[in-house]
Amino acid sequence: MKLEDSVCVVTGGAAGIGRALAERFVTEGARAVVISDVSPALDVTAAQIGAHPIACDVSNEDDIAALIAETEERFGAIDLFVANAGIGGFPGGAEVPDDEWQRIWEINVMHHVWAARHMVPRWVTRGGGYFLVTASAAGLLSNLGTAPYTVTKHAAVAFAEWLSITHADDDIRVSVLCPQGVRTAMTEGDDPAVANVVAHGLIEPEDVAEAVVQGLDAESFHILPHPEVAEYVKHKGADIESWLGAMRKLQRRFFG
Question: What is the number of domains present in the chain?
Fold first, then answer.
């Protein structure tokens, strides 16, 4: 996909990876880049990078539908929808309360489902479009210390795979972005659930944006800003017992 003269939407665009993606899309010559967020920084970010702000709570399907409708009314047909907004945290496993499981599920998974629900019929009618899901290397591997994050990112990857398989003949292209450690608010602080990720080193959001531009150009399904993730995935697929053993060693190292 070429970004020049395209209409792009980026959820979670006020900061972090979302901001970096939107700023790069503007630089690449997109006709209009719309960023959405619940952050009060939304308008300031949009003004700074040359994007257009539309407030949207991605945990609400009606908000997503309104975001899509307003974008298309103001700027024309959406070429690229980036379901980027997501949350981390929620350390623990089965003991995490239901309301916290539900919240991360709505933002990290149903946000993508709802966006596709309202974009895919438009793209089928028009003859194509592009859907980019921001997941995580945790969606291909695992994230120590937080079952809700791991489970929802796996689900995000699975939904992207399903879309790619099901709608390829509709010329709807799908990519899933799976970075490891990125220097954002999510990796700040001393949360033990991100300790392993941080220990492996962080890249900048701008590095992720560069990988995304290259991945969109190649129409790659997996966009992996950390190339080593591909090797980890191969290890996991080739010898799951060995991979689980390695992950257990990391678990003991970081969590005792």
Answer: 1
